[in-house]
Amino acid sequence: TARVIGAFDESRIVYGPTGEVMPVGTVPLMPDLSQAQPILLSSDQSGTAIDLLLTAETRLASLDLRILKDTDGKPSNEQALGEPVTIQLDHDVAGTPTWISAPLPTEFQFEKDTRYWLALQAREGIAHWSVQAETGPRIGMHFTDSGGLAWRTTAIADGPVFLAGFFRIRSVPSRFKMPIELQVGTRDQARRVSLDRFQPRGRVGLSLDFDEVAS
Fold first, then answer.
1. How many angstroms separate the CA atoms of 181 and 192, rounded?
2. pLDDT for 186-200, tens place per residue?
3. N or C: which end of the chain has fewer CB within 10 A?
């Protein structure tokens, strides 16, 4: 038996992992080194913020997040989002991989079957972006150390051939929606428990009996 008490965020995760994640490593973000992660969705999806799994190596790090258009399977220099989003990292808060949410200046529409790229570059300091093995179309993350003149496939030592940076898309629903599910346990013992039965109530305090739910 467990109790979940607290306030719900205004936004909801509409794309990307929830619960425990298992990075295979990290890739660096520096003033002279940018990383870009492709996004290709099967349906239209609006986003009001992007979550990124980041670590600050230096005491402070300032990052620029851009959404770029695609050109022949690589990031282009044309921005799909009109202006970069600044992310401030503090080593005291993000000294280990931490989900950092970056609100977008305006709601952005990711069109289905259209590839975009999330590009991150450190304006000041050094940070790291947690990655996993890509399970999609074998394009993988790309990096540039030439200011975007050339992009190459990102790799890490002893890692998979194609990498994917951890990210999530958030959106603000037009009406209250209960978070989709609760993760109980970790790794192989993890179980997902749906909270849909609380949807009509919009309650903030929940008391759950997992044996009852499982049955």
1. 6
2. 777 778 777 777 665
3. C
